[in-house]
Amino acid sequence: MSGSLQGARVAYRLRRICEQVGALTLTLDILASIDEALDDLVALGQRGVDAAEILRLTPYFGTLWPSGRGLARWLATLAADRPGCLTGQVVLELGCGLGLPALVAARLGARVIASDCHPDVPGFLAGNAALNGVAIEYRALDWRAPAELAAMREQLGALDLVIGSDLLYEAELAGALGPALDALCGPNTRVLLADPGRPHLQVAVHAIEARGFTSRVEIAAVPSSLDDPAVHGERRPPLQELFMLELRRA
Q1: Using H for helix, E for strand and C for coil, what is the string for 104-143?
Q2: Which residue range forms the structural domain that includes residue 78?
Q3: Positive or negative, the Cα torsion across 161, 166, 168, 170?
Q4: Which of 58, 105, 110, 240 is the most buried (most CB within 10 A)?
């Protein structure tokens, strides 16, 4: 099944999929092709839209990346091991994109706030939340911006859980994640992050620990992304190894 969604600058062609996460089955609309969306953005450049705006609008969020899958499964496993552990919890997802982990947390009874800074994320998230019969609050947030973090903490109060997947794809983000978590997390906030082994991961972990967090790491393997060559190339691996990090205040 396919459809379309109008974004800030381009219309996206969609593909509807079912994603099994533990005992949960979720329905999501994702990009039919990242490459196709990139071609549409390049065409905007030929009509005078500047390169910085095109980069800002690049919709890499629009497919299911392995880290998002891994984080969603981690949440489902936690709930299977301790039924009801997410019920009533206040959960914030950073850089939510399509929001698969946010959708899973909401299905498991949490109050979920999903955040991102891409202008086209809210449309995707609202559609996918409706498809799965859950309510998810959305906040525009650039977690590199201290003022935005302070406003978020004031609005939301105490958070039980902060989650994020594949947040460290640029060196700048590795340096910003520690201050962001320090600003958002209270003394009892737990943090769950999934990362595919980005070069900046260890730098980020050291910076987070320097701000008074303890870390625990597990290795997991999840199915790699769907059949979009822009994600893994034509020869995509069947499984992706992930680093799963649990962080708490020391």
Answers
A1: HHHHCCCEEEEEECCCCHHHHHHHHHHHCCCCCEEEECCC
A2: 62-249
A3: negative
A4: 105
